[in-house]
Amino acid sequence: MEAVWSAGEPRSVRAVLDALNRGRRQPLAYTTVMTVMARLAEKEILRRKMDGRGYLYEAAVSDVAGIAVRDVIRDFGESAVASFVEQARSDPRLLKRLERLMQQKR
User: Fold this and answer.
1) What's the rounded Cα separation, in Å, for the pair 4 and 100?
2) pTM, whole model, 2 decimals?
3) Which of 45, 65, 80, 85 could form a disulfide with 76, with the two C-beta atoms 3.0–4.6 Å apart?
4) Domain 2-59, what architecture?
5) Which pLDDT tens digit goes with each residue over 54-84?
6) How far does CA 93 lie from the centroid of its chain?
């Protein structure tokens, strides 16, 4: 994911592979990276669009925390959100930050 996040633009499997293999003793195989990126696209962590015969990939989430939050909400739904709100209520700083973020997103 770092290779995709750091690019700031959609990248091909080959470009990600080249970035990952820089400085590695044993290079990763193209098919390994392609499979992982396809699976991340299926999980909606990456977005992909056709580019010729292949795909260009870009991040659908901005960081590791975003991936974790998506997974928790996917797995636990509304109860995860309710639990988070309860936790925020017990921490005034977190509650204030949450309120600010909610106002900014409207």
Assistant:
1) 29
2) 0.76
3) 80
4) Orthogonal Bundle (1.10)
5) 999 999 998 999 899 888 998 999 999 899 8
6) 26
